[in-house]
Amino acid sequence: MNYGVKAEENGLAAIFQNRNFALLWISQVFGQSAQNAILFVLMVMVEGLTRSSALVGLMVLVHNLPSILFTLPLGVVVDRFRKKSILLFCNVVRVFVVLSFVFFNHYSRGGWLLTAVYILTFTLSTIGHLSDPAESAMVPLIVSAKQLLTANSVFHLLFNVAQVVGLLFLAPLGIRLGGVDGAFGAIAFCYMATAAMIWPISVTEEAPKHRPAGDALRRFAEELQAGWRFILSRRSVLTAIGQHALITMLTMIIAVLAPGFSARVLGMKPTDAVYIFFAAGLGMFLTTLWTGQSGHHFRREWLAAFGLLMIALAMLGFAIIAWHSEVNTAVGAAPSQTVIVNVELMAFLLGVGGTLASVATQTIVQERAPRDLRGRVIAAEFLFGNVVGLVPMLIISGLADLVGIPSVLLGMSLVVLSGALLSFRAHRGRMS
């Protein structure tokens, strides 16, 4: 594959000159922000209705359940239908589902209302697990192969920006200005805007294949198996999916440990974890700019391996800082300016490495999956990331209370370092 692309054809300015890509990207600013905001609003709603942490936790479980139950079957659906049609359908339906929360909030009470909230949450999450693979599978259809790495880099930045917009602005401001119903109204508007942006996108897609009605279940199972056979037969794709799952796991764990790292290790307020995320965000942004201009000069596998290596070094740096800082915290000393600077440097390195690895692995999967299997392969990638990430997050969050955050950080750095070294070795073996 030729990666010798001229910078002017592959930079950020060039990618946004592609009208279809710009429309899809802007649509996902609205859609992903709404998707991140809805869980926060639902947690606030259930807490207000029940005053029960257990029932809030059940709502979070209901929200995550479709990722395990339906991700792979929905990947088959993505491959059977036009991606644009799926995205339009998902976002129009989302508008009605979100507005249904407002309806039931006004016209039902008690257990009936709570049951409706859980059912609607499950429905909305299921729609999201159809929409996300469709969006990812659509990117290679509207950008050239030369621009795919840049496109994924820009989308990776978008997802992180959408988390900030959804969790820090859309949800809190909606609740503050209009209560829970006002927040739902703002989220419904975002989904309407998403559909409006997707509508004018022009994309060439093959017409869905006509399939006889008989024995649909058997054919459905065969299509699922075809996706897995492809993944297992392509070492580069299987490796990229494994690397992506490792990054997803780390993202979940870091999000859980960050407040405790600020409070118990550095002796700062838990909310000061925002400074760590800000430095990581800066690393993501600058890496996105670099990837758009120069990333095409390097093989995707090398970018993924170097990204994992940077993550491992950042985690090791956090572990060393944590051991020294725990001693000072024990004697009541506030963290020095040097410690804070070192933490932000490690967070910056974490953002750089995470972006490099995530963008490279996503691009490998999109490039090497055939068009007729791409939805299933991407769905398998999402499923593997969610399953592999969720269980270690639950275990390690408890382990941090037993052995301490520094020991957990050291263990994580060794795991990622092993993954990086294996990635370098695997790529060198294929090149020899």
Total tally of structural domains: 2
- Rg, rounded, reads 22 Å
Strand content: under 5%
Q: How many helical elements?
A: 15
- Name the overall outline: globular
Low-confidence stretches: 1-8
Brief summary:
This protein is mainly α.
Characterise this structure:
The protein contains 15 helices and no strands. The chain has helices at about 5-10, 10-15, 20-50, 55-70, 70-80, 85-105, 110-140, 150-200, 215-235, 235-265, 275-295, 300-330, 335-370, 375-405, 405-430. Helix 4 (about 55-70) packs parallel to helix 7. The two termini are about 15 Å apart.
Keywords:
mainly alpha, 432 residues, single chain, Growth Hormone, Chain: A, globular, disordered N terminus, 2 domains, 85% helix
Present the secondary structure layout.
Layout: H1 7-10, H2 12-17, H3 19-50, H4 53-69, H5 71-80, H6 83-107, H7 110-142, H8 148-198, H9 216-233, H10 235-265, H11 273-294, H12 300-330, H13 337-368, H14 374-403, H15 405-431
Helix pairs in contact: 3-4, 3-7, 3-8, 4-7, 5-7, 5-14, 6-7, 6-8, 7-14, 8-11, 8-13, 9-14, 10-12, 10-13, 10-14, 10-15, 11-13, 12-13, 12-15, 14-15
